[in-house]
Amino acid sequence: MTRILLFLLFTGLLVGSAVWLANHPGAIAIEWVGWHLETSASLALVALLVLIAVILILNRVYGGVRHMPRFLGRTLHERRLKRGGLLLGEGLAAVKGGDTALAGKMLREVERLLPGAVGVQVLAAETAAATGDLERAEEMFSAIKDNPKFRACGRRGLLELAQARNDEDKVLAIARDAVTSGISAPWATGPLFQILVRRRQWEDAMNVLGRAHGRGGRSARADDPQRVVKASLLCAQARDVLALGAPAQAQRLAQQALLLEPGLIEATLISARILITENKHRKAAQMLAAQWKRVPHPEVASLYLSLGDDGDPLKRLKRVEGLIESNPEAPQSRVALAQAALAAKLWGQARKALDPLVRTRPSPVVCRLVALLEEGENRDLALANQWLMHALTAEPAEAWTCERCGATHTRWDPVCSACGALGTIDWRRARKLEGSPEPTTPAAE
Ligand SMILES: [Zn+2]
User: Fold this and answer.
1) Which positions of the chain have pLDDT values less than 70?
2) What is the distance in A from the centroid of ligand 1 to the CA of 425?
3) What's the rounded Cα separation, in Å, for the pair 324 and 322?
4) How close is the Cα of 431 to the center of ligand 1, in Å?
5) What is the whole-number distance in angstroms between the Cα of residue 416 and the centre of ligand 1?
6) Is 393 helix (H, G, I), strand (E, B) or coil?
7) DSSP type of residue 422
8) Which pairs from 285-291 meet CB under 8 Å and 24+ separation?
9) Where in the chain are the domains?
10) InterPro entries, alphabetically (predicted)?
C-alpha cells in the first residue's frame, strides 16, 4: 500500500516537473576552453541526471572490483569450514562405529582443512585410541586437557585410556583431579566412588557422593535415593574409627547413619556398645529395645541381656520377656524366649515359644533348640539326634544376606564381597541354595 502511494507521489512529482519545465522553457549556454554548448534547460537537466546515474554505476563497479579478492577469499574459507565440519562429524561417527580406516581418512582431510581445531584433536585422539596407539592418544588428550575450555574432555579421554590399561591408580588420580577441579559429571564421580569404596576409604567416598548428587552428604531426607548407601558408608566409617580408638567420633558417625537409616543394626550395635563403655546403660538398653522392635537380631538381644546380667536364668528370662514384648511374634523373639526358658529349665514355656516355628519350616537354630528341649524335658536322645540331623538340612535361617546376589556373610559390611554392591547387605532370611534337598521335620515323619 505504502509502495503504491510512494509510486503515485513520485509519478505526480515527475509529471509536475515536466509540465513546469514545458511551461517555463529556457536555454543554457556553456563556453569553456573554446567549446561552445547551447541547449534547452530541460535537456540539460536530463543530461545531468544521466551523468549522476553513470557516476553511481561506475562507483558501484569499482567497489565490486576492489573487494573481489576479499570476497573470494571469504567464500573459499567458508566452504573450507563447511567441508571440514562435515568431514569432522563423519570422522567422529566412523571412529565411534569402529571404522578406524574411514576415521583415519577423514582425519587426514580435516587436519588439512581445519588445522589446530580442538575437534580435530579429539578425532585424532579417539582414532589413535581405537587403533591401539595409546601413547599418541594420551599425548592428544593431554593437549586437549591443557585447553581450559575443554579440560573435562581431555581428562575424560585420559581416564578412559587408564581404564583400558586397567591402571586403577591412574584412574583414581585422574578422577580425583577432575572432581577436585569442579567436574561433577558421572564419568568422573562414578569410577572415583567405586575405587574409594573398593579401597574402603569411606569418608572420601561419602564426599564424592555428596558432590555427585549435589546434596549435603549427610542430609537425612527420607526421599534421598542414596539414603541407604550413605548410611552404610557412615556406619562403616564409625566401625573403623571406633577400632582406631575414637569413640566420640564413632558415636557421632553412628548417629548420623541411624538418622538416615534407623533400622541399621550395625549402627545401633556400635552406638550401644559405646554407650555401655560410658556407663550409659539405660540409654543403651532403650536403643537396643527400639532396634528389636524394628528388626530383631541375636546380637542386639545378647548385648541387651549383657547389661546387668548376674547369671540368674530366671532374671534373664524376665529381661528377655521385657525386650520382646514390642515384637513378640517375630521368629527371633520366639528363639530368644525359648533360649532363656531352656536355660531356666522352663520346658513348657520353651515348647510354647518354639511350637509355631516348628510348624513352619524350622531353621537350623530352631532345630537345635528343639533337640535341647527333647533332651532336657523328655530325655529322648533319639529324637534329639533326629532334630540335630535335621538342623543340617533345614532351610537357612536369617543371615547377613546381599539383596542383590543372595550371598550370605558372617558379619555386616557396607560392600558385598561377592558382587561388589554397596548397601545391599541386610539381616534377612537367606535364600535356599540351588539343589539342596527338601527338608523334612522329625515331627512330620
Ligand atoms: Zn552381593
Assistant:
1) 18, 21-22, 214-223, 431-445
2) 7
3) 6
4) 12
5) 5
6) helix
7) B
8) 288/323, 289/322, 289/323, 289/326, 291/263, 291/265
9) 79-166, 226-306
10) HemY_N (IPR010817), TPR-like_helical_dom_sf (IPR011990)
Choose which CATH entry (3.40.50.2300, 3.50.50.60, 1.25.40.10, 3.40.50.300) describes domain 226-306. 1.25.40.10
pTM, two decimals, is 0.73
Q: Tell the residue number behind the cell numbers 524394628, with chain if given.
A: 294
pLDDT at res. 440: 56
d(CA 268, CA 221): 19
How far does the centroid of ligand 1 lie from the alpha carbon of residue 191, in Å?
A: 19
* Cα 406 to middle of ligand 1, angstroms: 6
Span from the CA of 228 to the centroid of ligand 1 (angstroms): 15
The phi, psi pair for 396, rounded to 5°, reads -60, 150
Q: Centre a 10 Å sphere on the Cβ of residue 19 and count the other Cβ atoms it contains.
A: 10
Using DSSP's 3-state secondary structure scheme, residue 338 falls into: helix
* Residue-wise pLDDT tens digits, 25-84: 777 777 777 778 777 777 777 788 889 999 999 988 888 888 888 888 888 889 988 998
